[in-house]
Amino acid sequence: ALIRPTLPRMGEPPLQWRSLRAGARALALAEAAHADARPWACVAADARELERLAAELRFFGGAGLEILTLPDWEILPYDQFSPHPDIVSERLATLARLPQFRRGILLLTADSLLARLPPREYVSARSFTLERGSALAVDPLRQRLVQSGYASVSQVSGPGEFALRGSLFDLWPMGSEWPVRVDLLDEHIDTLRRFDPDTQRSLDSLASLRLLPARELPLDAASVRDFRRRFRLRFSGDVARLPVYRGVSEGLAPPGIEFYLPLFFERTACLTDYLPADLVFASDPDLQQALATAWEGIGARYEQYRHDIERPLLAPEEIFVRAEELAGQLARHPQVLLERLGAPDAPATDAPGPDAAAEDGETAHGTAPAMSASLSPRDFRLDARATEPLAPLIDFLAPYPGRV
Questions:
Q1: pLDDT per residue over 29-43, tens digit each?
Q2: Nearest 5 degrees, angle CA 170-CA 174-CA 175?
Q3: What is the rounded CA–CA span in Å between residue 96 and residue 124?
Q4: Which among 121, 71, 64, 128 has a CA at the least distance from the CA of 94?
Q5: How many CB atoms lie within 10 A of CB 217?
Q6: Are 197 and 156 in contact (CB under 8 A)?
Q7: Contact indicator for 315, 235 with CB cutoff of 8 Å
Q8: pTM for the whole thing?
Q9: What phi-psi label fits residue 62: left (phi over 0), alpha (psi between -120 and 50 degrees) or beta?
Q10: Strand, helix or coil for residue 345
Q11: 166: left (phi over 0), alpha (psi -120 to 50) or beta
Q12: What is the CB neighbour count within 10 angstroms for residue 237?
């Protein structure tokens, strides 16, 4: 049976959807997104839960439900290495789509809410399109890709890379699942084809291709000058000897440069700046506590590393949004609290007790015994070489036909 959830309204207290068992949360969100003309956002606890929730939503929502994901960087605050290119690619694709996002579900983690972002106009202003049959000057394109953060390689193997081989121009656009091969004919684009990076075999052809910037921060000459100026104003001493300053001055992106993002822009943005005003936020009831805990962790990391004279740090308030400020921004949106099965306020009838288990446990051998919550732990020695390695566990569970 489908779940028909109540939809929240603007200006009303958060709704509570209670006792959502297993995939019921994804089913309820999918039904709500189909029934509602507004876009939705759901906050997952971590990257693993986000991936699982996305798979469940694709199953329940079908092809008609647009699902965007904004993963967090999956690095700790002030780490001295950058996020994986695949993560950056997915984030940029989502940021480019959000200004036109009118219906569907956005999935993100609590850490993604806290991180400051480039201004809304950054991605659109630095994106451009290649079309089949249009003129293409290779040298200006190569220079533009380098300024956008793309790396020149001999053979592309990941997002944010490009390679020029005669009349073939291979590049892996950010936000794209596959790399694209541009076949040139007399300085015009003859074909645009996706290809398999492992076998180098061509796949389907494209009429046009949109290229996003390779990073969430710019590395063109003007942006580098602005970074150098703000860095000197922000930090004292001989900054020219610092690795971060030297790397950006050479047009490179040193590891961990994401934690200096505010120095590239006159102002930064929050995720809520990208979202429609009527977007509905769905989260666990303890989201605010999770944000407060994350903020405490950011402060602890800052205190741990801020004394490194070779790598001066920006204060947490410059890179992240305070939990209290973020709570005020979220309060302007309709909200739904997703309470899991077994939450303190959940009705007792949602969790079947021993009587219900016995009532539902009729088998050919009679009534099955109830599984007691106080059952003593058992140690099952599983033999991986046996024909049925899980046989001890299966035999133990045989009298209990319900869910385990």
A1: 999 999 999 999 999
A2: 120
A3: 7
A4: 71
A5: 21
A6: yes
A7: no
A8: 0.76
A9: left
A10: coil
A11: left
A12: 10
